[in-house]
Every structure is written in C-alpha cells, then in structure tokens.
Amino acid sequence: MMFADLGCIVAALVLWRRAPLSSVLILLACGITLALLIVYPFAWAVAVRLVGGDAQAVARIDILFGIGWAVVGAISTTLLVFAVYAGRKQPNTALEPTPTAP
User: Fold this and answer.
1) CA dist., res. 7 & res. 35, Å (int)
2) How far is CA 3 from the centre of its chain?
3) Distance between CA 102 and CA 88 in Å, rounded?
4) What digits encode the pLDDT tens for the residues 29-39?
5) End-to-end CA distance of the chain
6) Which one-letter DSSP state was computed for residue 6?
7) How far is CA 71 from CA 7, 46, 89, in A?
8) Which of 24, 57, 64, 94 has the fewest Cβ atoms surrounding its Cβ within 10 A?
C-alpha cells in the first residue's frame, strides 16, 4: 500500500500541469493514507502502553483505532472520487442536434 501511495504521489506530481486540481486531491488522499500507514502502528503501541495492558482497555483502543482507520479511508476514497471528476466539463446539450421523429 505504501508503494502504491508513493507511486500515485509521483504520478500526481508528473501530471500536475495536465490536471492540477486532480493532482492536489490525489496528493491529499495518498498523503493522508501514507501518513496513517506510518503513524498507526506507533500510535497504537503508545496507546496500549498507556493503558498498561488492561484487556478491556486494549479492546476499546482496537475499536477506536478501527473506527479511525475507516473514517480516514472514507475521506481518502472520497478525495480520490472527486479527483476523477475534477475539471470535467458539463456536456453542452444545446449544441447537439435534436432527434427528429420519422
């Protein structure tokens, strides 16, 4: 996943002039995901150490981290979807010929 995020970041930088808004959204989405992938294991270890290994507290930490992971994943996916449609123009139906009945 880290390599995929890094590849997307490089692609967004390379294609910046072609689609600047999409590139920004991709950089945000992949940057957030990459940062979370790096920080998550350390933050989880610190949180578990702070509660002293209590089984119920660790279970709550697991649930909270799972919810946080899902929320960040949803935000990242939403940014990627916006990146796909960013800068696209609405079709101009006024210029299209009107179909005629036979």
Assistant:
1) 14
2) 15
3) 35
4) 999 999 999 99
5) 56
6) H
7) 23, 21, 30
8) 94
